[in-house]
Design brief:
With about 400 residues, this protein is mainly alpha-helical. Helix content is about 55%, strand content about 0%. Strands 1-2 form a two-stranded antiparallel sheet. It is globular, with a radius of gyration of 22 Å. Keywords: Hydrolase. It comes from Bacteroides eggerthii. InterPro entries: DUF2264_N, UCP014753.
């Protein structure tokens, strides 16, 4: 009798646990979207409010792991903040303004972004950015160009003729910076892709070289080496897959070749997104490994972009991704210390953890975290936002769900 009671109690505990796993954090797509927008705008506000008034350099702190007052990063951190923020917020802005509360909010942030870019690229502005000192400007001009490609109407299209020319003038200086043999090759490539998109002319040589290198550096099952060697980190999501796909998409649009590689990369991109969805644990945590983990949930750019552009695998539904990414964002944001007293991001992965930052990371670097939000470019009436709550693979597997599919590598 005692054993029977123990078994019943154990069963009830398991049922209670599994029920709470699937219901405790269930939210609707509208609630998720409102939450995403609130976090994105909270992150964006200090950068865009200050820069739109020409006060970014005056107001933004420059925190580094060294803790020194005037670190070398001060020369490049402001372009980092603008370029990285733009790459994440751009798809949402590209939806444009409308009469809804969110549409009116987008109108506000489109205006802030356009004014910020005008200040950042105007040589007469106190917020004029550095495009020539050290190699780092190549990195963040590339993220800026990626953002422009993601918002050609609402950002590039709303810039004045003068600002457009200021941007193109700055990109001429960026072209002079030689990339190192790593993911940096894609920075030169995406700058050329943006110039092609907005002027109809480009220098194909850096693009062809970058594509050839990444064909050689492919390691299998959707993973590229960052250079000749494989690095166990998230640079396949921070840079490699998103920029490869974006460059090849522009080339396809302008009939510049590489159609075979474009199709191969789409399949690899989808496979990597499938892997990323499986990285998410039941509670929204995921492996903390490799370089640049201070970019926080920017880790999941590929998964979010796959949802935005229709590259999710058949094994993963839109609402699985929405719910999984919402859990990830909340896991980070539910810890105090991610922001300082004035709302600027702090060094850290989950809270304020300056010791985890590499020497090349400073306050501006951290805004690559916004790349998790690119799926906000899906309209509010899309299935991504309207479908009901769905547990992601990690939550279903650890909850004992019997119909979870096996995982298979690709050979492409």
């Amino acid at each position: 009798m005692k054993n029977v009671i123990c078994k019943i109690c154990t069963t009830l505990v398991v049922i209670f646990y599994q029920t709470n796993m699937t219901t405790a954090q269930e939210t609707t797509g509208l609630q998720d979207r409102e939450y995403w927008v609130s976090v994105l705008t909270k992150i964006a506000d200090p950068v865009l409010v200050n820069m739109s008034e020409g006060n970014l350099k005056k107001a933004m702190p420059v925190e580094t792991a060294s803790g020194v007052t005037n670190p070398p990063n001060i020369k490049t951190t402001h372009l980092e903040a603008l370029g990285r923020l733009l790459t994440g917020i751009a798809p949402w802005l590209e939806l444009g303004p409308d009469s809804s509360p969110e549409g009116k909010l987008r109108a506000k942030y489109i205006d802030l972004m356009v004014k910020s870019i005008a200040h950042g690229f105007d040589p007469a502005s106190p917020d004029y950015l550095n495009f020539v000192t050290t190699r780092q400007p190549l990195v963040d001009a590339a993220f800026f160009c990626q953002g422009l490609l993601r918002a050609p109407k609402q950002v590039w299209g709303n810039l004045s003729s003068k600002t457009k020319q200021d941007v193109l003038n700055a990109l001429q200086d960026i072209r002079k910076i030689k990339p190192v043999e790593s993911n940096w090759l894609l920075f030169s490539a995406i700058v050329e892709a943006a110039i092609l998109e907005f002027t109809g002319k480009w220098n194909p040589d850096p693009v062809e070289y970058a594509l050839q290198r990444f064909k050689e550096w492919y390691k299998g099952d959707a993973w590229y080496g960052d250079g000749a060697n494989l690095h166990m980190d998230y640079y396949n999501s921070y840079v490699i897959h998103p920029m490869l796909l974006d460059v090849l998409t522009v080339m396809h649009k302008h009939k510049k070749g590489e159609e075979e590689f474009f199709n191969i990369e789409k399949a690899r991109f989808t496979r990597y997104a499938e892997q990323q969805e499986r990285f998410i644990s039941p509670d929204g945590s995921y492996p903390v490994v490799g370089r640049s983990i201070a970019y926080r949930f920017g880790t999941f750019q590929v998964l979010s972009q796959a949802a935005l552009q229709g590259y999710l695998p058949a094994s993963v539904t839109e609402n699985q991704v929405r719910c999984g990414l919402t859990a990830v964002i909340k896991k980070h944001m539910n810890v105090s210390g991610n922001f300082d007293s004035k709302g600027w991001l702090t060094l850290g992965f989950c809270g304020h953890q300056p010791a985890i930052a590499e020497r090349y990371i400073s306050t501006g670097s951290l805004y690559l975290c916004t790349s998790v939000f690119v799926a906000l470019g899906l309209p509010v009436n899309s299935k991504f936002w309207t479908a009901p709550y769905a547990a992601w693979t990690g939550k279903r597997i650890w909850g004992g769900c019997p119909d979870v599919r096996l995982d298979k590598a690709i050979k492409l």
